[in-house]
Amino acid sequence: MKESEWKPLTARQSYNRMGLALFVMGVLSFGVQLLLSLLFHSLAAAYPQIAGSSWVRYILSFVPLYLVGMPCAYWLMKPVVISKPDSEPMLPGDFVISLLMCLPLMYLGSIIGNLLSALFTGGQSVNPLNEFTYDLSPMTVLVMVFIGPVLEEFFFRRQIIDRCGRFGEKQVILFSALAFGLFHMNLYQFFYAFFLGLVLGYVYTRSRRLRYTIAIHMIINLLGGILPQLLLTSIDEQTLLQLEHFTGSPAQMALLMRSLPALIAYGIFAIVMLVLTIIGIVYLFTKAPKFRLNPAPAQIPDGQARRTICGAPWVILFILFCVVMTVVSLVTSM
Q: Which helix (H) or strand (E) holds 190?
């Protein structure tokens, strides 16, 4: 299907359909998670080992979304026509620059999310992602570094951008980033997911190659969630508490020498990440202003985008549902 002019009804219907798919994904994921929680709770009476099982946590966290919510949402999106313009080659240098720009955005988004969460709860809330990063089992690494990035990029970049990109590149990049941020449904992750979504959306819009955004997403999850915790878990928490009040006693010196390799490794990692983040900030100020957005075949005129996209009923419901779930997540994490 090739469109040559702006058609308000077509654009509104397409974005409304995407909003419906996203809303159904959120409601189904929550509903299945709730049902599974009740099931495991009832089973725990007969099988006490179920309570607190890491496998139960994995099932509750990932099965409702990846095996139920996303497939149903994909099926609902299919009536929206796919339109892919010619792709542009992405040079290795462009990939590295895009990755480096994600680092300061990741940290900035995390800082904003942490500060707002602490502000709204008086510092009582806890990031729900911590329970997964603290447990560095093979399943955690598999989901966070491989399964999650692949499925999320396929859904939030390829499906949304390919189906609505013909109505405007800027609009669809913003929409896909907003949907990506909201779908996490917690304030801790919203801002960094939204910021990263902007870069990933631009990379996919220019290249139309999912492998680039998947690779960036994998590396960011590895650097931001897995590696730091892996290095920290090699140092006993009790050791850190004893070294916090270091007096130079023989016992503390012996403890320090045993932990020195792990401390040095973490220090090197922190320095490298600091340097890379500073380079990323430089690229953000020098390269990002030169990002180019091409006119789309059915470009939404300036001034019409907000009414066309955010005014779609199912988009409104999706946003409201995610906001409510974000508030619930914040309250229950206290």
A: helix 187-207
- Among residues 223, 168, 177, the alpha carbon closest in space to that of 200 is found at 177
Rounded percentage of the chain residues whose pLDDT exceeds 70: 89
- The model's pLDDT over 45-56, given as tens digits with 9 standing for 90+, comes to 777 777 777 788
Pairwise CA distance, residues 105 & 116, whole Å: 16
Spatial contact of 265 and 231, defined as CB atoms under 8 Å apart: yes
φ/ψ of residue 310, rounded to 5: -70, -15
Kind and range of the H or E run holding 327:
helix 313-332
pLDDT at 256: 66
Q: Which residue has the tokens 């690229």?
A: 283
The answer to whether residues 33 and 190 touch, using CB atoms and an 8 Å cutoff, is no
The Cβ-side half-sphere exposure at 76, using a 13 Å CA radius, reads 22
- Cα gap 23→164, rounded to integer Å: 17
- Counting Cβ atoms within 10 Å, is residue 123 exposed (0-12), middle (13-18) or buried (19+)? exposed
Separation between Cα atoms, residue 306 and residue 329, nearest integer Å: 28
Rounded CA-CA distance 10/26 in Å is 24
Lowest mean pLDDT among 134-138, 273-277, 299-303, 323-327: 134-138
pTM: 0.90
